[in-house]
Structures are given as structure tokens and as C-alpha cells.
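[agent] plan:
  1. take the single chain provided in the ticket
  2. run structure prediction with default settings
  3. attach C-alpha cells to the ticket
  4. add a short note for the reviewer (M.T.)
[agent] executing step 1
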Amino acid sequence: VDTIDFYSSYSRGDMGTFLSKDEKILYANDWDTTGVYFSAFDLLNNILLYADRKITNLGPSPMYYGADDGRQGKALFIHNNTPGYKGLKFFVVNPDSGLYFNPVPIPPVRSKGYLSANADYVIIEQVNVGQPPYYEDFHTGKIQIYNAITGDKIAGLTLPPSKSARILIFDNYPNMFYYYNYEDHTVIPVDL
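[agent] step 2 finished; step 3 output follows
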């Protein structure tokens, strides 16, 4: 197995792949209504460490799982066990230990989740579905920040709404993210 084979064979989830904190292990994810699965590949020794390891006990059987982000050997998943967005929660998983941390409850609205560059924080952005004909996401500027381990809310922000705003996260700035608006090229740096 090489890196390309690993990626094409095991990276079936929304998030694709992400690296361990020391950047020696490449993780891939998959999920279905029965659970979340991870595979791991040792980049130094070019070997498969494990394939399709199931993370269990994530709560009631969900109607939907989804992967949003992965960094520093942690993955951010979305879990919904009720119709609509009423039971929506984000949770952080450590694929090696199989442990997950306290879920982050979020308002019953469509949201996108991110992990901070150091994976210490969960950043939740409310994103509405845009208007026809393209249905592009509309970024409301409503952002919540949570501790990734405890699930405690740290802050809430209201930034300028825009259909072309994006949250940008850079590894070189582990305690920050940037809210960038492509329309007017404004950048709002946010300290975590």
C-alpha cells in the first residue's frame, strides 16, 4: 500500500484525509448510519496501521453523520438524530484511541464546523442555503466558538454577512482564524 492507494481506497468521507499532530500518520474517514470509521496509514514506514476502525458509542443512532474537518490527529463530525436540524451536534473524535469528547450542541440551524489549527477549538458558522438559480451558501456571519474537549461555549461573534465570505484557518497561526470576504476583499482576524 502506498499513499495514493491508501487515499483512493479509504478516503470515502466528506473530509478526505488529515494528518496526526506529528504529521507521521495520514487518517481517512468514512461513515454511514451505523457509525464512523477511520483508517490510518504510517507515512514514514509506508504501511497501513488499521482500516475501517469503528468509533462506537456516539449517542443515539443518527439519521445523519457527516465529517466537517480534521486536524492535529482529531476529526470534527456532525451528528443528527432527529429530522431537520433539531438534534444537531458536533463532536471531536480521536481516531487512534476511539475516544470522542463532549458534544458541542449547536442551534437548530444549518451550520458548518471547523477545527482551529491546533484543534483546541471548534468554530461553528451558521450558513444558510442561497437563492436560485445556484443555491450558493450564504454566510450569515453568526459564529460560535467552543472548547473542543469540554464542549463549553467560549464566545459568540456576529460578523458581516455575505454570500462570498469564508473562514480561513492557517497552521502557522494556531490561535486565530480569518473571516475573508471575497466580494470586497476585507479580512477580519479573530483571536481564539
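[agent] step 4 note for reviewer: The radius of gyration is 17 Å.
[agent] ticket updated
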